[in-house]
Design goal:
The chain is α/β, with parallel strands linked by helices and 329 residues long. It has helices spanning 9-15, 55-70, 95-100, 119-132, 148-160, 175-185, 196-199, 206-209, 226-236, 249-261, 302-307, 312-326, and strands at residues 17-27, 30-40, 43-47, 80-82, 85-87, 107-111, 137-141, 167-169, 192-194, 215-218, 239-242, 292-294.
Length: 329
């Protein structure tokens, strides 16, 4: 049953603020993050499915945005959340510069398996992080970009160099491949986390039922909202990492409320990605200090909403998309 009364489409269109936010570094192949913000009865909320997503998937994200803006949030168990740093697939000589945006941190997620790069590029990036930050926990994220053999080769090479991994996120694409990698990496003490195999499949619990992961990476928007994500964690009974989808501070606020509401074991959250943006909708962006963010609602400033506004063509594209997706909820 819905947790909220769906607002009228006319009201959503009237309040929608379509924004184009520049990024510090190319990430997921994009240099600007396009988002839509609404001010709901419970505060500001964000709808930001990636441009290539079809309406059916984008409507799941819209339901999450409406829930956060127009429904009461679940009971929170924490007031602050530990946050990891995130490193794009940059060359070793750019690692220090890119990580400096995160300030102090105790965990870093490193992107690997970038198209056009090799396993040696990945190893060089990880080695540079370990040299600069000898005590931080390291997790890798391949976004399903490796085959089974390459994923295992990378993990084993790092183990030989005594570079321990907290876990290896989505090393391969399918659930069957994940199960195989998990079985083989267990022999060297490396856990496997599932991201795309949770949020990009018809049954987000399939990966848990197949014993294909040790950790679930959950994101509020892709899973249809905070309540839906919590239901998944309760049934899966696995440790989780709450992560972001490269959102502004408003979207990060949704993720923080999810992270504060989970009742299972959780790792440092991947909610520090505002540091990947060159600008933000808030005058004081949600960028972690001392590895932490406080659980609060983000309130964008009028000047930021004006300066980051998308052009008329992109605004109309999003309005049309909103009307289509609204009908699917």
């Amino acid at each position: 049953m819905p947790l909220f009364e769906k607002p009228a489409i006319a009201d959503l269109l009237a309040s929608a603020r379509v924004l184009s936010v520049p990024m510090r570094v190319k990430f997921r192949g994009i240099t600007h993050r396009e988002v839509v913000l609404f001010e709901g009865t419970h505060g500001w909320t964000e709808w930001s499915p990636f441009l290539e997503y079809q309406d059916e998937e984008a409507s799941v994200w819209l339901r999450a945005a409406l829930e956060f803006g127009f429904a009461q949030t679940p009971r929170l168990n924490k007031s602050a959340i530990y946050i990891n740093a995130t490193l794009a697939a940059v060359a070793p000589d750019r690692v220090e510069e890119q990580l400096s945006a995160f300030g102090s941190f105790r965990t870093v997620k490193i992107k690997v398996a970038e198209p056009g790069q090799t396993i040696e590029d990945d190893l060089a990036r990880v080695r540079r992080v370990r040299a600069l930050h000898p005590s931080v926990s390291i997790r890798l994220d391949a976004n399903g970009g490796f085959d089974v053999a390459t994923a295992i080769e990378l993990a084993k090479e790092l183990a030989l160099e005594s570079i321990d991994l907290e876990y290896f996120e989505q090393p391969v694409k399918t659930i069957a491949e994940l199960a195989e990698v998990r079985m083989k990496l267990a022999r060297i003490g490396v856990r496997v986390a599932a991201d795309e195999s949770v949020r990009k499949v018809s049954d987000p619990l399939a990966v848990a039922h197949a014993n294909a992961a040790d950790v679930l990476v959950i994101k509020a928007q892709p899973l249809g909202g905070i309540q839906s994500a919590l239901d998944i964690t309760r049934e899966a009974k696995l440790a989780v990492t709450v992560s972001s989808a490269i959102e502004t501070s408003v979207g990060i606020s949704m993720g923080l409320h999810l992270a504060a509401a989970v009742e299972v074991e959780s790792f440092d959250a991947g909610l520090g990605t505002v540091a990947l943006l060159a600008d933000d909708v808030c005058e004081e962006p949600f960028i972690a200090e001392n590895s932490m963010l406080y659980v609060t609602r983000a309130v964008p400033s009028a000047s930021k909403l004006a300066s980051l506004a998308a052009d008329s063509e992109h605004t109309q594209w999003w309005h049309d998309r909103l009307k289509r997706c609204y009908e699917l909820i």
